[in-house]
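Here is a typical sample entry:
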Amino acid sequence: MSIDKKSLQKDSHRFCVAPMMGWTDRHERYFLRLISNRVRLYTEMITPQAILFGDRKRLLDFNFEENPIALQLGGSEVLQMTECARIAEDWGYDEVNINVGCPSGRVQNGHFGACLMKEPELVAKCLEAMDRVVKLPITVKCRIGVDDQVPEEALPDFMEKVANAGCEVFIIHARKAFLKGLSPTQNREVPPLNYALVEEMKERWPKLKIILNGGIETLEHARQHLSKLDGVMLGRTAYKTPWILSIVDNLIFGEPEKCMTRKDVIEMMVNYAATQKSLGVPIKSITRHMLGLFHAEPGAKTWRKFLAEEARSLDAEAEIIRHAYFAVCEAASLKTQGEAA
């Protein structure tokens, strides 16, 4: 396997936020980018059919500030995947990622996602065709196996075939997926994690970039894995507790510590939301992603409740984000006074 075709940016995948359906839309990604300059962001999974025959602008447009950003595709039809890779490059994406990890029934019916762990040759064929027509990296997000597969056999077989087709970056969710009997939520929690197997893949193919996904809930946990692997990917932890990303640039990438506060982010989001509102975007489509900003902080409940209630109306304005912050400050002050008394 040769790794000399592309020169991937150093540390470009060292810390990633996972693609999450219904969550990592452009508003969420803009919000997270304000908190961290360096984390790599991914779109929600999009099917080639949606891109080729749907509202392409709505699906693919992103804010310039979101870069670096990757488009995740869920598909297995070679010509469609290849055309979407071309479109992604023209649209300005930094990477196209092939989903070989989602176990949902709808995804299986579409013949993509985790079921493709059983068809590494097809994944390799897609990747090779896509790689041939674009300069941006084509990467794969996969599981360690599915159903009755033996991960110690299935994962290296899958990786070898796909790497031989040109893949240099593997994002591995360190769990098996069960295509029948477990829901997508259960598939993220029930199958046991096998970090050791992912580390073995790095030892076996040291020139490949191996990014670990699954069960990483703290930055300390992430740092432990980064001593053996090229990167980590956080999903729901990054979404539900987004301020955890505020120290990633310093702690993971070694950049100078930022002095940005939650208030700074809120002010920028007020401006962003006002612009989006003028374009017809409901404020609730933006504020729903901000509910975890004060997680575990005084006033967190007030923040969530205020945004959830006040953003509900289609007439809601961006200013409610600032008002929610004032409510948090008041709640935190009252709590401090109560404790002092």
Q: What stands out?
A: Residues 262-340 form a domain with the Four Helix Bundle (Hemerythrin (Met), subunit A) fold (CATH 1.20.120.1460).
